[in-house]
């Protein structure tokens, strides 16, 4: 009950933030809104400088100069606060920087992040499990092309940690529209490094559009690494609910299994709700009450709550 009560309290407090579009017409704007306005102006300066840097790098590489104004790069900061039963509070900052280089046919980007979970500049629940996720810092060059409806990505980068190492990664994604409301998305990722040799990820996602506000999806991922003899299966069912233009809900159930001392026995069940609210276009928070049952804990119920607070600096 504690995570649920905490969710209600925090939700009530955060809902006291008024929508910026409404408050901009309010002559008696609160001190909080005035502060957010000032922060927004500062972020605009940071964003402009980021794109100026993107333009300078692009022109330096291509030796092509013009008066084009760049607006494609972005920065995202996110801090996660998590509390589980019998565990202390964990606080983890995440960062994702993408510097787009349009003169190189908008295919090449410089990247910097410290979280292997995908972080979409638009709304996307980034709490889907990724097998063997490595949260050391990444620096890399990403080459992205779309050919015949197949999205191909090639990345060369380095993990920055106490034991840094180089890696190369290739990804291919293809979407199959079954009809107006159903589609399949197939994705294959292969990553090579001296440390882990070949990491192989295969996934399939089925999406069913229930109506304009609800989307059902089933996501399955298989991860294999022969060097460390690691084989994992992950399956989840989720319903995405668009509440409004700035509020979203995800209802998720998931199952983890692997062949560690077993023949793909289930190792964890998990249920969580992910609520996202945009206070401003650039400022959001997530509330994630969750319950999990793990085999190494005799499948006893373990509750927790996670809070994300994020800033997105983009167009």
| Low-confidence residue ranges | 1-25, 119-123
Q: Under the CATH scheme, which class?
A: Mainly Beta
Rg over CA atoms, rounded to whole Å, is: 21 Å
Count of individual domains: 1
List how many beta strands DSSP finds. Answer: 14
- Total number of helical segments? 3
Describe the protein's architecture and organization.
The chain has helices at 2-14, 20-23, 31-62, and strands at 74-84, 90-101, 108-113, 137-147, 150-160, 165-177, 182-193, 197-209, 214-225, 230-244, 247-258, 265-280, 283-294, 301-313. Strand 8 (197-209) and strand 9 (214-225) form a beta hairpin. 16% of the residues lie in helices and 54% in strands. The protein has 3 helices and 14 strands. The protein is α+β, with helices and mostly antiparallel strands. It has a single domain (2-313), classed as monomeric porin ompg (Porin, Beta Barrel), CATH 2.40.160.40. A 14-stranded antiparallel barrel has the order 1-2-3-4-5-6-7-8-9-10-11-12-13-14.
């Amino acid at each position: 009950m504690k995570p649920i009560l905490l969710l209600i309290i925090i939700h009530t407090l955060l809902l006291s933030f008024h929508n910026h579009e409404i408050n901009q017409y309010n002559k008696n704007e609160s001190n909080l809104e005035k502060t957010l306005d000032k922060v927004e102006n500062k972020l605009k300066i940071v964003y402009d400088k980021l794109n100026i840097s993107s333009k300078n790098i692009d022109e330096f590489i291509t030796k092509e100069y013009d008066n084009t104004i760049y607006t494609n790069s972005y920065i995202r900061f996110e801090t996660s606060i998590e509390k589980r039963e019998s565990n202390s509070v964990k606080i983890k900052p995440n960062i994702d920087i993408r510097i787009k280089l349009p003169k190189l046919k908008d295919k090449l980007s410089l990247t910097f992040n410290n979280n292997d979970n995908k972080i979409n500049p638009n709304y996307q629940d980034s709490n889907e499990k990724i097998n063997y996720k490595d949260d050391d810092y990444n620096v890399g060059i990403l080459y992205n092309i779309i050919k015949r409806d197949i999205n191909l990505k090639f990345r060369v980068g380095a993990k920055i940690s106490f034991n840094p190492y180089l890696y190369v990664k290739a990804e291919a994604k293809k979407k199959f529209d079954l009809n107006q409301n159903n589609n399949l998305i197939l994705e294959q990722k292969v990553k090579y490094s001296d440390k882990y040799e070949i990491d192989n990820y295969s996934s399939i996602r089925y999406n069913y559009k229930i109506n304009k506000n609800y989307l059902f999806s089933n996501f399955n991922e298989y991860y294999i690494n022969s060097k460390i003899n690691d084989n994992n299966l992950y399956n989840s069912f989720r319903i995405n609910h668009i509440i409004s233009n700035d509020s979203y809900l995800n209802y998720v159930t998931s199952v983890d299994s692997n062949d560690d001392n077993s023949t793909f026995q289930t190792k964890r069940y998990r249920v969580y709700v992910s609520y996202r609210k945009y206070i401003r276009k650039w400022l959001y928070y997530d509330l994630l009450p969750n319950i999990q049952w793990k085999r190494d804990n005799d499948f006893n119920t373990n509750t927790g709550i996670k809070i994300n607070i994020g800033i997105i600096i983009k167009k």
